[in-house]
Amino acid sequence: MLDVQGVEKRFRSGADEVLALAGIDLHLDRGDFLTVIGSNGAGKSTLLHVICGVLLPTTGRVRLGGVDVTCAPAYRRARRISRIVQDPMKGTAPSMTVAENLALASKRRGRTLRPAISRRRRAAFVDRLSDLGVDLTTRLDDPVSTLSGGERQALAVAMATLSCPDLLLLDEHTAALDPKNAERIVELTRAFVEESGLTTIMVTHNMDQAIELGNRLAMMHKGQFVHEVRDEAKRRARVCDLVELFSRRHVADDELLLDPA
Amino acid sequence: MKRGIAGLAVGLLIVAIAVTGLGAPIRIGICKIVEHPALDANERGIIDALTAAGYVEGKDVEYILASAQGDPNNSIPIAQNFLAKGVTLVVAISTPMALAAVEVFEGTGVPVVFSAVTDPVAAGLVLDDDDSSQNGNVTGVSDLIDVAGDLALLKELSASVRRVGIVYNPGEANSARLTTIAEAAGPGLGLSVVKAVADTSANVPAAAQSLVGRVDAFYVTTDNTVVSAIDAVIAAAEEGSVPFLMADPTSLRFGPVLATGFDYYKHGLLAGDIVLQILAGKKPNQIPVVYQTGAEIHLNLDAAARIGLEFPASLIDRATGIFFGGASWLRSGD
Amino acid sequence: MGSILIHAAEQGFAYGIAALGVFITFRILRFPDLTVDGSFVTGAAIASSLLTSMGVDPFLALAVAFGAGCVAGAVTGLLHTRLGITDLLAGVLSMIMLYSINLRIMGKPNISLLRVTTLSDVVEKALSPLGAVALLVVLAGLTFLIKLVLDAFFRTEFGLALRATGDNEAMIVSQGVNTKSMKVFGLALSNGLVAMSGALVAQYSGFADVGMGVGTIVTGLAAVIVGGSLIRSRRIGWMTASVLVGSLIYRVAVMFALRYGYLIGFQASDLKLVTSLIVIVALVIPTVRERLMRKVGSC
Ligand SMILES: Nc1ncnc2c1ncn2[C@@H]1O[C@H](COP(=O)(O)OP(=O)(O)OP(=O)(O)O)[C@@H](O)[C@H]1O
Ligand SMILES: [Mg+2]
After folding, report:
1. Which CA distances in Å does A151 have to A82, A137, B189?
2. Do the chains A and C touch each other, judged by at least 3 C-beta pairs below 8 angstroms?
């Protein structure tokens, strides 16, 4: 489904060059659900950006369903990739209504001069929202800017899943929410992904989530995958193991730093 | 009782009609495109001409003055406002103002007198400047300057002048037209015209500089854009040590060697004269367009000294004004 | 008084089409487009050249002007999206280029339409029973038609994508919209309307002048902002309506400044000052009203 091969990403050049991705190889099969953890600046967001086309890799290729999309513009990849970002303000069009946002998400190619919101589509939106258990059906005509952060993120989930993409990218999409809301959104995501068998990558800082969700778990550090577990091994993984992995990494770095040779 | 009121009403009505018929002043709308020394003098000339003929402001005549403040989009509302105020005659100063007045007053029977319009025929204001019979309710005064005469002056100043540089803004109707005339007239006088375009005042310095070394004289017509940045042209002329003739006497003291042009106050008097003819009962289509003649010559001896030039006596004799020793000296002439 | 208001309304609608164009770039696309000062004249230039040299139908002249304006706007869009020139500069460059192009189209700085059949002539003849309001009826009808078409367009799938491009560009990219093309399209549409307005104003005024575009952006924005402060709605239909209301208010302000300015001691040279003061009053009314209501509520 998704093939990332030898991807490197450098920001800036010269003395203050940042190597955000230092050789990433990643293969996802259809239906895989990968959770990614890693400390701040590990390169998680950058990886998702390279996959969805917002950033171009410095070297390496990205293939989607066997097609090389390394240089395809983001808007074209968006026909097959859905994305939810951390900031609830950024994933929706704030001055447009809930229904309009859903209409935008429901058709990602070949937009025509037909009315975007027909009666039939409205009904479909209502169905969709209630399927997802999102309580926005009475607020279809309110501007999104009047919604709370949690409501917006719920809407973003609805929008990301409306057009049945091939790949879903979640970048800490519950990080800005309070625990209760975060819980709800995670539940929403899990239910949907499980039901539809959608291929998914989810970046999170919540170790419980990372362990609980999906069939694969990877840890990123300094632009590389440093640890991966899947299926049986993942089911057995516990938070304390991950914490230990984390700290071992950091100790290793510190040692490197201390060692002048 | 009822009859009494009716009688009173009729009586008042008669008084009102009598007052408007006899005592009320005639209303004249005077509009100009922008506040500008020349156009302001023009306006004053018109009013003074009427005053001199016995029309006392406030008693015999009421003036409604308007300015579009440089925006052609204001000209139509100004004319419509004149119409709503019931003016008996409109004087429109400048081409866009005149076009707006003619558009709005078409078919109303109110005469339109234009002023400070360079080419009324090309502007579509009148059909023919000589034969006025088909010109409808429009006539006026043109300030088309004598471009060929100006070029001849340069030649008279120095026989070695072959190339004349003109800085102009092709976006100004008058200036564009005059430049075309200069190009046509040049060869006959043994002169070639080199043009440099400045679409805004800010671009005048570059345009003027581009001509240094390529021309033997500078010439600037009545171009508002260039006139407002005239220092730049003067500097370029002095850098090239070549004479500079300007068709605007008011700028003489800033340093062109030679200035020609109309006195816009006199221009206004000419327009005022046309207004008087119409008030006396003539129809506009009986009055041909007037072309102002008798451009004045002004010399700047200080500027000439700076480029080592001496004026021939023939020129000094004809000069209306001379700038010398940092001051203007008017010659008593007629 | 009555006729003056009719004329002010005529102008409000004629310039209102340009204000709708400015609304599309500033409010919908959030693109500070300065091309309009040039494309307004382009429309006037094209229409008056067509009318004087070929005697084309006045309404057809509007359509051609629209097309020319679209090209001008698209150039700005391409300068910005393809060559990476910043939005303001791209607009300024187009505006400057258009100055020369407009002069080329016109051949001279000022074209008179006094002796050709313009839209006003056609309308006044065809609708003579309506008398003084004939032209107003047609201008209002045309402008309103354009408003309704725009409203409908902004509710289509494509129109929605255009609005989202201005609202949240990053988000709409991830919904599969090529925002670069969207911007080019939006700028083209906007400048098409502005040019059409220029063509209309030239025919209404009886002349086209190469200087008539200066300030299109300012008056357009004034209409957008004044209207938007009076009618505060996020619904597209109300938003476009508010732009037209703003344009009407601006033109009435000009007319009132001319007509009654002298009553409060203003003279001819104060025109722009008085116009702006009236616009300020219109802008402030909603705020004052709100403050008064708060005061009343608090006691
Ligand atoms: N546009 C950019 N220009 C320069 N450096 C960048 C840019 N974007 C990211 N980086 C750098 O690349 C590195 C990886 O950033 P990235 O956002 O991918 O981290 P992350 O793993 O998502 O971190 P977080 O958990 O904080 O979200 C960081 O060092 C960051 O500073
Ligand atoms: Mg991140």
Report:
1. 18, 11, 83
2. yes
- Are C176 and A78 an interchain contact pair (Cβ–Cβ within 8 Å)? yes
User: What is this model's ipTM?
Assistant: 0.88
Strands B89-93 and B138-142: unpaired
Phi/psi region, residue A2 (left: phi>0; alpha: psi -120 to 50; beta: rest), is beta
pTM for the structure as a whole: 0.86
Residue type at B136? G
Q: What is the DSSP letter of A117?
A: S
Q: Are residues B229 and B158 in the same domain?
A: yes
Give the pairing type, strands B163-168 and A2-11.
unpaired
Nearest CA to ligand 1 atom 5: A11
Subunit partners of chain C (3 or more CB pairs within 8 A): A, B
CA–CA gap between residue C159 and residue C156 (Å, rounded): 5
Domain that holds residue B9: 2-143+264-291
CB nearest to A104's CB, from C152, C153, C172: C172
Residue B319: which CATH number? 3.40.50.2300
In angstroms, the CA C212 to CA C43 distance is: 11
The CA distance from B33 to B224, in Å, is 12
Tokens in use for C2? 């009555």
User: Which amino acid would we find at residue A120?
Assistant: R
- Those chains having 3 or more beta-carbon pairs within 8 angstroms of chain B are C
- Tell me the C-alpha distance between A59 and A8, whole Å: 5
CA gap B113, B287 in Å, rounded = 10
Confirm or reject: Cβ of A38 under 6 Å from ligand 1.
yes
Of the residues A45, A173, A207, which should be mutated to test ligand 1's pocket, given the most ligand atoms within 8 Å of the CB?
A45
User: Can you spell out the DSSP letters for chain C?
Assistant: -HHHHHHHHHHHHHHHHHHHHHHIIIIII-----THHHHHHHHHHHHHHIIIII---HHHHHHHHHHHHHHHHHHHHHHHHTT---HHHHHHHHHHHHHHHHHHHHSSSEEE-TTS--HHHHHHHHTGGGGGGHHHHHHHHHHHHHHHHHHHHHTBHHHHHHHHHHH-HHHHHTTT--HHHHHHHHHHHHHHHHHHHHHHHHHHHTEEETTTTTTHHHHHHHHHHHHHHHS---SHHHHHHHHHHHHHHHHHHHHHHHHHGGGGT--GGGHHHHHHHHHHHHHHHHHHHHHHHHHHHH-
The helix or strand, by DSSP H or E, that contains position A182, with its residue range, turns out to be: helix A179-196
Q: Do B81 and C255 touch (CB under 8 A)?
A: yes
Cα C296 to chain centroid, rounded? 39
Give the Å distance between the CA of A39 and the centre of ligand 2. Answer: 9
Of A45, A86, A38, the closest CA to residue A205 belongs to A38
In this structure, the answer to whether residues B128 and B273 fall within a common structural domain is: yes
Q: Quick one: B313 and B207 in the same domain?
A: yes
Q: What is the pLDDT along chain C (299 residues), one digit of tens a residue?
A: 578 899 999 999 999 999 999 999 999 999 999 999 999 999 999 999 999 998 899 999 999 999 999 999 999 999 999 999 999 999 999 999 999 999 999 988 889 998 899 999 999 899 988 888 999 999 999 999 999 999 999 999 999 999 999 999 999 999 999 999 999 999 999 999 999 999 999 999 999 999 999 889 999 999 999 999 889 888 999 999 999 999 999 999 889 888 887 887 788 888 888 888 878 887 788 788 888 888 776 54
| CB-nearest partner of B124 from C112, C251, C269 | C112
Q: Does A95 touch chain C (CB under 8 A)?
A: yes
Cα(A231) to ligand 1 centroid in Å equals 29
Residues C51 and C55: their CA atoms lie apart, in Å, by 4
Residue A144: alpha-carbon gap to chain centroid: 21
Helices C2-23, B75-84: axis angle to 10 degrees equals 160
B222 contact residues in C (CB cutoff 8 A):
none
